Amino acid sequence: MFEKIYGHQSITNHLKKEIARKEVSHAYLFSGIDGIGKKKTAREFAKALLCPESAHHGNGQCAVCAQIDHDNYPDVKIIGPKAGEASIKISQVREMISELSIKPYSGNWRINIIDGAEKMTPEAQNSLLKSLEEPLNYNIFILMTSHPQAILPTIQSRCQSYHFQPLSLKDIEKVIADNPEFDQKAKAEAIMAAGGSPGMALYFLNNSEIQKERTHYLRELYSLLKGDQIKVFTLAETLANDKGTSQEILEFFIHWFYEIDLLLAGYPLPHQEVPNQAHKAYHQLLENEKNQAIIKTLFELMATIQYNVNLRLQWEKCFIKIMKIQKG
Ligand SMILES: [Zn+2]
């Protein structure tokens, strides 16, 4: 067990011992910076406790382990801030608590994971306290946090605490080795910048790839707006290759022209973003009404792209229309 965890060896050794001696705690506090491996360790711990192939203890990819990996095993509950929310609400914690007295669905344990535990409101933390004070036999809590100081001392004192230390460069390299799509130079740079967190290294890698792709499409579209007709067909051809990419780039284009719309109206960009070279180039090239007509055209494409249409043809139509708008 825990073979997939790189680094954090003293923690995984402790957890292994607890499992072997049947001295598993009812509450844990996993602390450490974002992306360092807390959640992965929590999942591996859950697998070690719940995998029915007990001889392997979570090594094999049985159905239970696979479900745990995908966060949809009924005896492993995970809560965190809901999408668009900054905090974990008391209602979420209450819902978790309301199920504590129900027997686990199949194994001997129910693992209740609170991801970003510092984001629980004080009321939410207080409502959790009683469950930690009087635990029910088969319930285990794992609170994960990058800011343990924001957890009430009364909660901390009821948890077995494990602090996850930053990983060595070598260990981060091992974690991201499974991502062959990135070249060595990019990997080395991301590892150096990651501050000991493999999750952060992956974030840097993914975003630089996404960024490169987007910059490419912006450059092509800019040529099109400047009158290069060939781009209508070359762009449509590449974008039609993959429906997912089509959708993603279309959403990005819409977002992009909305930003240009803000600049044209004299407003700052959202999230304190500073206009880059591409923003400036588009800003100079486009006029207010034309920009809005382009946004409208992109939305029309968005409406048709949902259906099973000839993607290439639809993109071509869209680009031809955009060219006409710009020509005026
Ligand atoms: Zn298994």
TrEMBL record:
Keywords from the named record: Nucleotidyltransferase, Transferase
GO molecular function: 3'-5' exonuclease activity; DNA-directed DNA polymerase activity
Source taxon at top rank: Bacteria
Record flagged with keyword Nucleotidyltransferase: yes
GO aspect biological process, one term: DNA-templated DNA replication
Matches recorded under NCBIfam families: holB
Protein name as annotated: DNA polymerase III gamma/tau subunit DnaX2
Organism taxonomic ancestry: Bacteria, Bacillati, Bacillota, Clostridia, Eubacteriales
Entry annotated with the keyword Iron: no
EC annotation from Swiss-Prot or TrEMBL: 2.7.7.7
